[in-house]
Amino acid sequence: MANNQQLFHFKLGKQPQQQEEEKGKKVIKIGRDLGDGSSVVYFPSFIPQKQSWDFFHFLNHHIPWSTPTIHVFGKPFLQPRDSCYVASKGLKELTYSGHKPHAYHWDDFPPLKQILDQVHQALPGTRFNSLLLNRYKTGNHYVGWHADNETLQMLFCVEAWVAAGDEGKYTT
C-alpha cells in the first residue's frame, strides 16, 4: 500500500467462515482479500460478552475523554465524537486535523493493556504501539470518510478495530 492509506468501513456480505481450533475452542474468522496486499479479517465475539461489557463500563467511566476542536479544510469544528490517545513511550506525537492529543501510556489504564494482549494473541506477529479510542455517545457522533495521513503512519500499517457495547451496524 502507499503511504497514504485509506480506511474504509463496509458491510461484509455472506462470506465463508473459517473455523480454527485454538486451545480447545473454535475461533470463527471471516476475511476478505482487498488486493494490493490489503485485507480485512473479522472476529465475531472475539472477547467474551461478560468481559466485553466489563471493558465497556471501564472505558466509559474511567477514560479521560475529550472532544477537541479540529480543523477541516482550514475551518475549526468540534470533533463529532469523544476521543483519547494512548501510546507507547518514545513514540512520536500524533497530530491529526490540526490537533495534538495528549498521549497517555498503556500502564495508565490496565484494562486497555488486557485488550491489547488479546488483540496480539488473535493477530500473531503484530505489535501495536498506539491506540486512538473513540466514543460515539449519540446518533450525532460519527467519523466521516477520510484518508489517514498522520506522520506516525508507516509504509505497512495494520489497524485493529475493537468494538464494545452495542452490536449495531458499522457503516460509513
UniProtKB/TrEMBL annotation:
GO molecular-function terms, A-Z: broad specificity oxidative DNA demethylase activity; cytosine C-5 DNA demethylase activity; ferrous iron binding; methyltransferase activity
What organism does the UniProt record list as the source? Tanacetum cinerariifolium
Q: Which Pfam families match?
A: 2OG-FeII_Oxy_2
Keyword set, alphabetical order: Methyltransferase, Transferase
Specify the protein name: DNA oxidative demethylase ALKBH2
Sites where the protein binds substrate: 73-75
The entry's family comment says: Belongs to the alkB family.
Which residues does 2-oxoglutarate bind? Answer: 134, 136, 146
Alpha-ketoglutarate-dependent dioxygenase AlkB-like domain: residues covered: 40-154
GO BP, one annotated term: DNA alkylation repair
